[in-house]
Amino acid sequence: MSIGRTGERGPVPAEADPRRWWGLVVIALAQLMVVLDATIVNIALPSAQAALHMSDGNRQWVITAYTLAFGGLLLLGGRIADLVGRKRTFVIGLIGFALASALGGAAASSGMLFGARALQGVFAAVLAPSALSLLTTTFTDPRERGKAFGIYGALAGSGSAIGFILGGLLTEYLNWRWCLYVNVPIAIIAVLGAFALLHDRPGHGGTARLDVPGAVLGCGGLVAVVYGFSEAEPRGWTDPLVLALFAVGIVLLAVFVWWQNRAPDPLLPLHIVRDRNRAGCFLTMLLAVIGMFGLFLFMTYYLQVILGYSPVRAGLAFLPLTAAIIIGSTQISARLLNRVAPRLLMVPGMLLACGGLLLLTRMTVHSSYTSEILPALLLLGLGMGLTFMPVFATATAGVAPRDSGVTSATVNTAQQVGGSIGTALLNTVATTSAAAYVTAHLRGPADRATVVPAGVVHGYTVAISWAAAVMLLAAVVAGLMVTAKPPRHGVPGKAQVRESVG
């Protein structure tokens, strides 16, 4: 793409695709499908468990099979997108995701459902980095880039909450299988839109080969770590299997880093993560999602089990959170990113989210949604909206086109692995704290009706306080590591000019 006129606001591409905003709709639709699928099944899980006769110990695999495959294979998916073409991998990911969803919806046994969820994760790992890299290479004008990433960041941040709402509606008024079937028409629309509206930019393909040893080491290490966190909940942190998984994962990832310095065509070029701003964005995303995903888990159970909400009502209770994320991302961050440094949005965003979580540490069995839960959700949503958009935009700014797929995959890996870690870590904290509370306060069988619910809520508040501490750490990381200037004033803007010229 060549550079046309240049004004005080920066370069404007002379050959910008006139249909690029419709292309953004297609990209956003695919990304929304991937993100919400991580949570849409949560509300449907009790119904699916009863229908397929799953044990309490095995039901977690409906969630974990997806997150393991997704988080573990994202880097490989990103590099495949760079090597064979983003549009091609985008379409393949959509078709595969739709077929896996149909297979899961028709599942006749728990094993069939687990396998379908794993397949969804595999194709999501191809689809997600392709979507973000298409966005990165389509919108190179800093003015348009802010708006595009505002929309993308809003979907990335609110997709999980939308999943709860949609999951509640489908489960209550149809059945749990439609939480999987719903992906099929979405994917069909996105595939048709991709063929009509999306175009690859130069910078992929060539003679480079896929780094197979790097794929085995990196993906194997991530899978081992995520699997270890998922098994820590039922087995305990000191279980030999859990410790072995963590050890294997750390060793594999260490060898992966060693190999990437020597591989002729590395899966993850280390110059991408050596950049201070990108590393800060990756770490901020990881920490932010740890806190947010843990909250989704606790609030779902709190609303349905403690307050007695129906699936639909529980899903609708997340709507203000979703609205706040969208407002923070599209109306605040997108408007300010070209005027202020990214960390001036990310740090206040994480502090607002931390404040919202601290409010939730005061909830009790009898808390009012309107006066106690709602203000906390609004603060959390606004903070996440302020943070997600500059993280996505800064992490992918100035990346050479040939590396856009793997950079996009690294952002998504941080998000997915953070969600897996947050769910496992905070759920273990909540369970342990609840058990200790009940043991300390239970005097006899007559007390169970009051002590057990109070203990459960106590466990939630302890875990949420940990999530608040993680959000505070994310604010510190963003403030110290993300030193990028506004795009039109500093290096990122120049990098975007070079990317456009390339």
UniProtKB/TrEMBL annotation:
GO cellular component: plasma membrane
Organism domain of life: Bacteria
UniProt cross-references to CDD domains, sorted A to Z: MFS_MMR_MDR_like
Localization, UniProt: Cell membrane
InterPro entries the record matches: EmrB-like, MFS, MFS_dom, MFS_trans_sf, Sugar_transporter_CS
Keyword line: Antibiotic resistance, Cell membrane, Membrane, Transmembrane, Transmembrane helix, Transport
Entry membrane topology: Multi-pass membrane protein
Domain Major facilitator superfamily (MFS) profile: 23-486
Listed SUPFAM superfamilies: MFS general substrate transporter (SSF103473)
Entry GO MF terms: transmembrane transporter activity
Transmembrane segments: 21-41, 61-78, 90-112, 118-137, 149-169, 175-198, 210-229, 241-259, 280-303, 315-337, 344-361, 373-400, 421-440, 460-484
Gene3D superfamilies noted in UniProt: MFS general substrate transporter like domains (1.20.1250.20), Multidrug resistance protein D (1.20.1720.10)
Primary localization: membrane
PANTHER family: BLR6921 PROTEIN, MAJOR FACILITATOR SUPERFAMILY MULTIDRUG TRANSPORTER MFSC
Name used for this protein in its record: DHA2 family efflux MFS transporter permease subunit
